[in-house]
Write a structure and sequence with these properties.
The complex is a heterodimer of chains A (506) and B (421). By secondary structure, chain A is of the alpha+beta class. Chain A has three domains: 7-41 and 147-221 and 323-366, FAD/NAD(P)-binding domain (3-Layer(bba) Sandwich); 84-142 and 223-312, D-Amino Acid Oxidase, Chain A, domain 2; 391-501, no CATH class. In chain A, 32% of the residues lie in helices and 23% in strands. Chain A is built from 14 helices and 24 strands. In chain A, strands 5, 6, 7, 14, 15, 16, 17, 18 and 19 form a nine-stranded mixed beta sheet that branches. A seven-stranded mixed beta sheet of chain A has the order 9-2-1-13-22-21-20. In chain A, helix 1 (14-25) links the parallel strand 1 and strand 2 (30-33). In chain A, helix 1 packs parallel to helix 5, helix 2 crosses helix 3 (97-110) and helix 12 packs antiparallel against helix 13. Helix content of chain B is 32%, strand content 20%. The chains are: A alpha+beta (506), B alpha/beta (421). Chains A and B meet through helix 12, helix 13 and helix 14 of A and helix 5, helix 10 and helix 12 of B. Bound molecules: flavin-adenine dinucleotide (2 copies). Residues 10-16, 33-36, 40-43, 46-49, 51, 169-170, 204-208, 212, 227, 229, 264, 307-309, 347-350 of chain A line the site of one flavin-adenine dinucleotide.
Chain lengths: 506, 421
Amino acid sequence: MTNKVQVVVIGGGATGTGILRDLALRGIDSLLVEQNDLATGTSGRFHGLLHSGARYVVKDLHSAEECIQENIILKEIAPDCIEDTGGMFIATKNDDLSYVNQWLEGCEKAGINTGEVSAQELLKEEPALTPDIVKAYYVPDAAVDGFTLAAANVLSANKAGAQVKTYTKVVGFKLEQNKVRGVYLQNKRTGKEELVGCDYVINAGGAWAGQIAALAGQNINISPDKGVLVIFNHRITNRVLNHLRPPGDGDIFVPHGSVTVFGTTSRLTSSPDDNEATRGEVLELLAEGSNLVPDLKEMRLIRAFAGVRPIYQPEGGEVGREATRDFTLIDHSRFTGLQGMVSVVGGKLTTFRLMAKVAVDMVAGRLGIDKPCITHLEKIYAPVPRNGAKPGEYLCQCEMVTKKMLDQAVLEKEQFSLSDVRRLTRLGMGPCQGTFCTFRAAGYYHESRGLKVKAANKLLKDHIEERWKGSKAVLWGQQAQEAQLTRGIYLGLLNLERLDSDRHDV
Amino acid sequence: MMYDVVVIGAGLAGFSAALAASESGKKVIVVAQGMGNLYSASGYIDFLGYYPTTSSKPVLNPGKALEQLIVEKTDHPYARIGKENISRSFAAFIKASREMGLPYTGSLETNLLMPTAVGALVPTTLYPQSAEKDVVFSREIVVVGIKELVDFYPAYAAENLERQLGRKIRSVWVDLGLNVGRELNSYDLALTLEKPDIRNRLILKLKEADVQNKLVLIPAVLGVNRWQEVISEIEEKLQCQVLEIPTLPPSVMGYRLAQSFKLYLKKKGVEFIIGFPVSYVKCTDRRCEEVGIIANERVKKIKGYNYCLATGGILGEGLKVLPDEIKEQVFNLPIKKSKEQLLNDFFNSEGQPLSHAGVMVNDNLQPVNPQTQAVILTNVFVAGATLASYDPFVEKSGNGVALASGYKAGVLAAKGGFSDE
Ligand SMILES: Cc1cc2nc3c(=O)[nH]c(=O)nc-3n(C[C@H](O)[C@H](O)[C@H](O)COP(=O)(O)OP(=O)(O)OC[C@H]3O[C@@H](n4cnc5c(N)ncnc54)[C@H](O)[C@@H]3O)c2cc1C
Ligand SMILES: Cc1cc2nc3c(=O)[nH]c(=O)nc-3n(C[C@H](O)[C@H](O)[C@H](O)COP(=O)(O)OP(=O)(O)OC[C@H]3O[C@@H](n4cnc5c(N)ncnc54)[C@H](O)[C@@H]3O)c2cc1C
């Protein structure tokens, strides 16, 4: 492997992987580094809504316009990553109806198609909704899978020659005469450090972008803002459900595979790593959501988690801001004179491709490359396709994961965890949350990959622990029962805790 | 109709209570919402596998460890039951199991180490006679997986066993060529293996795997009803020993016990109403007068002198966990629970506070107020997983507590005439 590339991209979320793909398609030699697995930052801890833009039409028309443009493009180029569920906005008798008119006007301006539907008709199709609907409209929202999206971007970039290092953290920059010459990387598994030379760095570190920039002596004023989300064990509605009111907490439900993701909140927090949801936060969300789905509190929750948005507060006015209103491209040379580094912050997952285009347009220009962006023209594909398998081949019946998918998910990996596999296949993401399939996957990989038994035990234990942590804030009702069943199986029946396994990661 | 004893719950605790009460010639009815947890559990009856639970060494003499536990953990259900009653339940169960045609064996003085589906060894006290095979001392072991079953991986189990036993263990896959076009669980496969031609296919494949004179470990799928016949046929034809390994739910071994036990109790005259939760109770003067279920939109009342509450805790739905409290579902009894909710570490061998929550009882297994210790209902006796202050999963004591507490509750309910003592 070469230790010099033209561009190093930092961050393996939607933005960073989108940037890598854009660079690669323009023939620019690039490397992406991600400290964990792909999409383990905010792009794996978000709502999964491919916005139509309708949520933003009143407050931020520009951002709504960007969303609908990207929504149309992504449905075209990334069908593997998107479930085109459609969406709906409903206002109930407790909502301010004057907002509805403002909203309709905004949708019209942004070019978002809305179709009104009567409460009666909608309730026939979506029986979980409150009967108190006064106004309801269909919009072109969809569900998007952030894990698959990041992996599909990388697959496309790899084909065009780009490289990726996961579980590799940027720990410093090599600076010479106020110019970035390279990045110092640390392999998180082995602890080994290396230097990779480069002409340019694009910092797509999301909520961590400030920490990364600080390694180069740059100051980006980012406040982390936490949003809590919960997962129900079934599809509550078939379409994405939005509350038709000024955007607030707990007003979106997104169906994904066999489950529903509901949220979210917005609270400033102290660290981008604060991704735990508390019981109190979950209860507040449920209280809000009950306005749209009356039986919500009776439904089974399987998990709660949080993601962190970077709230960017520019210092010194608008200097150096090449920005749309939604996201910001920071050219550090214009602040401090540091050459060879730009940072991209903010935005939405829905607009990642556009953000990538804006960033790469600038960097390509600096590198004297005048190839245009073509990321909207070529399709991207999931590395682990969900092709219809024959019955008898499924190891995870909740999310229909086959042995073949398990093989594909680890094809090029020397080392992996079942969480890495889960992100590519949805293994363990369904209603049983891995209670059955984790055991099967460990047994299967032990043999197919020739794992040492202590490594297989570790795969199994780590994944059960990971699933447990995610369910702790919602352990009541049927989920408390499920937790006892899982304990019954792994402790009572299997006595797994007494088996030796490789050491847990620190 | 007035029953002597009304048992609420059809798990091992409820069955054990019904057994004890019917042994004293009482008129007994079992009312339950559903089938108990035996259908998920292994079918082994573990009394105490680790003590203290954080110890890495299994308990080899459960009787002795129980005596120590009874002295040291005065809130533990076993302390309320007492050693003598534990022994009585043990003996009564062995006798009943013989009569029901599913003979169990074991001794309170010894735990046997049984292989689990991951290849760990788990200490157990009471097990079907057909499972009385010693993995630790047997000469040569072959672990067999069946291709059609997604819930067992022979090489994985074998390698873990190898590490613990310190010797080479062979593993093989056999393919029954069933081509059924769907994943089979243990129960499906066990039904299939009752068919003579399929059974013969298995025997043929095992023969190819060269199992003569060896101990064959195979997932517990060797028949739902006629397993004894299946096992002895394999053992005779191939001159080997067969030990079934309990599988992930559904558990065929648990199913066998639940079915045989229920049939046996029916023959002894115990009545059953299964399928409806007890959703109505009438209590006066600290006595339960009657309970009721709603069947076909009508309330059906059931009256008894004494009641056994064996509703299976959180898993059995006798306890319902709400975001900020835990509720006992039948009598709304107060719950003893600790302040902390859950530990971070799933595999923590101290056990989870959630499991420790439950109904507190006195030495007569009557429910008491956790603060004042006052008896709440004098003619109700609580048994099984609804009891407070233990974690069956880290102790490996689930079925043991269910059997022993159920038996004592049944004996006391049959005797009746209690006040506060
Ligand atoms: C609760 C919530 C819900 C949301 N819902 C939606 C939605 O429904 N639809 C939508 O379009 N948008 C949504 N968003 C916004 C969207 O999720 C984000 O805008 C998007 O995921 C950001 O992607 P990113 O690649 O910029 O950042 P991230 O995905 O966070 O990627 C940054 C990466 O950088 C890595 N990194 C950090 N430091 C280093 C280092 N030193 N070395 C190497 N790597 C490093 C991190 O590990 C991380 O993976 C939501 C956001 C939140 C918080
Ligand atoms: C996967 C698993 C494996 C296990 N393996 C083992 C093992 O190997 N060895 C071991 O010793 N233990 C094991 N256990 C633990 C053991 O199974 C339980 O501790 C034990 O079975 C509990 O018995 P019980 O009779 O108290 O409850 P249950 O068997 O749960 O029975 C409760 C009964 O009460 C009924 N009920 C509940 N509420 C009402 C109501 N309101 N009205 C009427 N009826 C009601 C239920 O329908 C059910 O019939 C395991 C547990 C699990 C989950």
